[in-house]
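>> received
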Amino acid sequence: MKAILIAAGMGRRLSPYTDDRPKCMVEVAGRPMILRQIDNLRAVGVTDFVVIRGYLADRLTSALASEPGVRFVDNFDYANNNILLSLMCAAEELSSGFFCSYGDIVYRPEVSAALAQSQAELGLVVDPFFAQVYEGRTEHPIAEAELTDVRDGRVRQVGKKAVPLEQAAGEFIGLWRASARAGQVLRELFAKRLSERGLSSPYGRAARLQVAYLTDLFNDLIAEEPRLQLPIHSVEIARPQSWREIDTVQDLERAHTVVSW
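>> returned
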């Protein structure tokens, strides 16, 4: 089983912790975020880890040198693109089933276990208790959350400013899983949009495809669902305080008091 870990980001808002290391290597409760992810994914059978590196790539390579099954894909333009383009640096990896994770999250082992047990062809982990995480989170307010509209178990819309707060069933945490067919559909849909529009045209809620979010591709897929017959399903977190995003120094400080798993 394969996992793709998107770990190219600079993490400016986590400075000074990211001055000498990639964002994913910042320690939360004594262990780097990316190693926590690898631990949890290994526990559900992942043996092949594709790490998309960018900022301070050599530091990440050295840090993971002793981890079995880890290989790397480079995002050489990480300073100018965003998470969707970062994922597509590993486009050739999408045609087989895989887990995928943002590089700046930590979560309980049962979160990845629930995702592994899901039968969805394309499943996103959604936290219905998200409002609790944002209590006192002033440097990354709820307006920046990737809120998710879920009806009958299907994701109908997802992303920053894409779903009104009162309509949100939860927050997409950045962890998801795709079947081989789902990965191929995502790869082909992205390639089609790139061919049609180029990197400089708007895409979804992004001013340019070059800086689009992964959720822009998901929303495009949702709009095309009648044609492509590939619904996106929600995999709900079962209890509060099961994950944290580490985007700011405040997030890091707050996570130390919560992360004990």
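>> The chain is about 30% helix and 25% strand.
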